[in-house]
Amino acid sequence: MLATWYKEQQNNDNPVVIIIDDMERCCASILSEFIHMLSEWVLKVPAILIMGVATTVDAPRNVLPSNALHRLHARKFTFQSLPEKMNYVVETAFVKQSSEFTISHKTAVFMRNYFVHQNGSVTSFIRALKIACAQHFSTQPLCFILHWFLRDEDNEVPQSHIYGLSQERMLKLAFDLPSWKSTNNQITQLSGETLLDGLTQLKKLHKTWRMVVLCLYEAIKGENVQLLDLMCEALDPKGPFASQFDIGSRVLPSDDSTSQKFHSLEKNKGLINRAIRRVKELPANQLLVLMKAWEKHTVDVPEFHSEVKALVLSLLKLEENGESLNQNKVEMTNTRKQALRGHLNGADKNLRVANEKASNLVDLMVRRYMCPVECVALHEVLCFDCVDQLQAALIGDMRRRIQMDLQDFHAIIRCSCCSKRGSTILPSMPDSSIMYTLAQEHGDVVNVHDWYQSFKSVVLSTHMVSKRGKSRSKQHSPTPKKRKTTSELSQPSEASIQARFCKAIVELQVTGLVRMPNRRRPDYLQRLAFGS
Amino acid sequence: RKAKLFPPVPPLSFLHSFWSDGEQTPESRTFPSAAFCRPAMEINDGEEEEEFEFSRNYFLAKELGGSSKKSGRKISDIDPVDEQELRTAANNLEPKHEREVASLMESYKASYPEWGFMLRTGFGLLMYGFGSKKALIEDFASTSLTEYSVVVINGYVQSINLKQVMVAIAEVWWDQLKAKRRNSPSQAQQPFNSRSIDDLLAFMDGQEADDDKSFVCIIVNNIDGPGLREPESQHLLARIASCTHIRIIASIDHVNAPLLWDKKMVHTQFNWYWYHVPTFAPYVVEGVFFPLILAHSSTAQSAKTAAIVLQSLTPNAQSVFRVLAEYQLSHPDVEGMPIESLYAASRERFLVSSQVTLNSHLTEFKDHELVRTRRNADGQDCVYIPLANDGLQKLLPEINP
Asked: Nearest to residue A404, comparing CAs of B20, B272, B166?
């Protein structure tokens, strides 16, 4: 049939393109026959076959027989690797951005672990980020300030009435934020100007933090490093690099004691330390490339930018002294080598000086500018920190949660009749909870009769004698007399107890916790879930 | 390879706090310097601990089940009440914690704006938790989704024709489009009934009204219900949910429901946003198709069916059966009545004239599953009625003497 279809095929100038989504899902023999057929008709019907491969590059060799492979003139195309994609996403979303939204250290670590251990796809990471954004915008009333940041109206107090919030309310919310209260206890005059100062400082510090992370990433790019890992280290408000930024002050300290402490931590491993060491050890040409990249990133921080520029100039001079005027990198390397050979001592010394300067620069950068956003006042406005909420929305642990709902129903229902029950099974508990708790005492199969008898005894009892003794049960019943009379009055009938038993089993079946008896074991129910 | 691409993560204790409910202890917050060197393999310990707990419980339960003496009690020992009475009692049961359940439902109303926001953003809402969520979701739709069209699919019914559902959704979307546009659309519309599934999907995913933020909301009560558990159904639902003008809210109750979906369905097509909303409302409609365990107890069932069958037989056949039943009741320990004895007893009472007649009666009984044969210790063929003695006793008065 295919052959006849091919005969009728109009032969245009363009070849026919056949796309096979997933090669490994196809039946190998049919695929090879198909390839044979295509190759036979290739003169009349030129065809290009595009095959998607889900596993390894040599999968076609494993799947197809050799005679089919011979007829294929194969070219390989690969997408950008996963780490590269991740780095690009993280860089665009958090580091090189125009929007100020960011995530807390805890959130970053959670998202990284979710990506690594649960679901290693960029789609799921972006989805997690989307959820974090959506949650931030729906729970933080001051999130409109992000829009204010975007509009770049730094000299004016945010006009909250545009967003449906009165100015007073905005000020109250802002000055009630925990980060403001812990950092600015002394300030008594809480006005729009104070808020403006705080927000400006927040924006500035966040910008410089982003600059430092970008520069460190440039330094460590060649070493197969994930930007997300670097970001997690840099975000940590309790990490060794953040200890410089006293949460009580907005001004960055620069005294010797902190820098000594900093240097002593240098010996520790970590990506930031690795980046710092790398900068110190880079050869001149690579250092120049790095400094040029830093020059671009540090445009907004004049103090730092001038130092970087000076270093770039000195490195360039080194190059010139090394008798190389060519801008081509390859030639620069060669002449660098020649220059080094020719002017070994002098060049070496100059290089060491440049490295020293670069190392001081990076120290300065990390010490003075890498302030994690969580150390800054008012950071709650732009920083998302509700990891539990994010986790709950991303990962619903059905099996565990349903069983917890049944066991710890009181945390949800909050009734007075079942409060402080301890380990006792009270008759006022929901029937399904009673049944679920009773089932725990049995193995993987539960005898229906025994289960019913236990259920009946619970339902008919006023006080169950618990393992902890009668005294506790006495504490639980404030008016034992009253309870006894009510229970005597409303003793449930056998039919109603049986009906409740049946309904509870139906509910446990709906949730998939038990399975009905089968022919082999007509008097036993099988438990399918065994507690958390 | 993983360790190379993703450098070591923070210490184990830090990770553990995300995968368990425990609060992060002050000690775990300190940042031990050597911790960064840990290989990635160790980091899974926190997760694995929790998984081990699950499997530990499973093995403990199996052990407990195996070691303890199995109770030989049967369902009939419960002495279940008459089915009609049971069903009447079931319908008249008073729900527990009515007030608390009602206030729980009220408390969820505060989250309606957030749910609406997430829905408009493009997420699919997945509601889970113990208790029927049908009333909750429908209340949410009737209060917060009034400006959108809503289609409800009840997944708890036994079978659902998804093609018809798609036609209904397409018609609703078409009506919504017509209502937004003043002028009638240019293209002539083929009736939706005759279109293929791909056509319908293309229509719902179309570029029309792009700047408009309207959509059709689909509510699937029990997306894990028996009518929708087939993989084809779930894939089709996923394709529907991924259309640009469709939003989906679903509820699940079965603990294994997440097994219905693969990664693409969860993250791209459905785009699930999980909401834990236990309601503790009774599973009324969801449980309709489940049999009541005590209503269909084997004894009552078999005795009834046996009585019905016997009444359709000839009086002689019924009398032969009575002889056999009386013998079985008076000799509870034997494997059954030897056929020779049955023949002799039947002949005495003039119920059968020859072995052939008896055999034809016995064949009829066997066909209707009223009797079975087995050999006793002496090697004789015996017949017996596969009913418990109390069932037999209930049956005897129903047979004509």
From this structure: B20
Instruction: Answer for the pair A281, A352: CB distance below 8 angstroms, yes or no.
Output: no
B257–A contact, CB cutoff 8 A: yes
The count of other CB atoms within 10 Å of the CB of residue B343 is 20
B161 φ, ψ (degrees, to nearest 5): -95, 100
Which amino acid makes up residue A199? L
CB-closest option in B33, B66, B283 to A443? B66
pLDDT class for B47, splitting at 50, 70, 90? Answer: low
A350-388 CB burial, b ≥16 within 10 A, e <16 = bbeebbebbbebbbbbbbbbbbbbbbbbbbbbbbbbbbe
Q: What is the 3-state secondary structure (H, E, C) of chain B?
A: CHHHHCCCCCCHHHHHHHHCCCCCCHHHHCCCHHHHHCCHHHHCHHHHHHHHHHHHHHHHHHHHHHHCCCCCCCHHHHCCCCHHHHHHHHHCCCCCCHHHHHHHHHHHHHHHHHHHHHHHHCCEEEEECCCCCHHHHHHHHHHHCCCCEEEEEECCCCCCCHHHHHHHHHHHHHHHHHHHCCCCCCCCCCCHHHCCHHHHHHHHCCCCCCCCCCCEEEEEECCCCHHHCCHHHHHHHHHHHCCCCEEEEEECCCCCHHHHCCHHHHHHHCCEEEEECCCCCCCCCCCCCCCCCCCCCHHHHHHHHHHHHHHCCCHHHHHHHHHHHHHHHHCCCCCCEEHHHHHHHHHHCCCCCCHHHHHHHHHHHHHCCCCEEEECCCCCEEEECCCCHHHHHHHHHHCCC
Q: Which residues have C-beta within 8 Å of that of residue B69, sequence separation ≥ 6?
A: none
Tell me the angle at which helices B12-19 and B45-67 cross, rounded to the nearest 10 degrees: 60
Q: What is the ipTM of this complex?
A: 0.77
Q: How sure is the predictor about B211, in pLDDT bands with cuts at 50, 70 and 90?
A: low
Taking residues A346-369, what's their average pLDDT?
Answer: 80
Whole-number Å distance between alpha carbons of B221 and B151:
11
pLDDT at B400: 67
Residues in a beta bridge with B39? none
Question: In the Cβ-directed half-sphere of B9, how many Cα atoms lie within 13 Å?
Answer: 28
Which residues are B216's β-sheet partners? B149, B246
Facing residue for B298 by CB, picked from A270, A393, A522: A522
Helix, strand, or coil (residue A527):
strand
- Are B90 and A240 an interchain contact pair (Cβ–Cβ within 8 Å)? no
Contacts of B64 in chain A (CB under 8 A): 442-444
Instruction: Provide the token pair at B37.
Output: 């060197």
pTM score: 0.73
Answer yes or no: are the C-beta atoms of B248 and B241 closer than 8 Å: yes
* Per-residue confidence (pLDDT) for residue B143, from 0 to 100: 94
Chain A, 192 to 221: residues with Cβ < 8 Å from chain B are: none
Q: How far is Cα of residue A283 from the mean position of the Cα atoms in its chain?
A: 36
Query: What region does A189 belong to: left with phi over 0, alpha with psi -120 to 50, or beta?
Result: beta
Residue A103 identity (one-letter amino acid): I
Mean pLDDT for chain A overall: 78
How far is it, in rounded angstroms, from Cα B61 to Cα B66?
9
DSSP A135-195: HHHHH-GGGHHHHHHHTT-TTS---GGGGT--HHHHHHHHHTSHHHHHH-SS-----HHHH
- Report pLDDT for B207: 65
Residue A205 has pLDDT above 60, yes or no: yes
- Considering only CB atoms, B267 lies closest to which of A123, A502, A527, namely A123
State the average pLDDT over residues B63-91.
75
CB A313 within 8 A of CB A287: no
Nearest CA among B233, B273, B223 for reference residue B253: B223
Chain A positions in Cβ-Cβ contact with residue B118 (cut-off 8 Å): 134, 138
Residue A187: the pLDDT is: 65
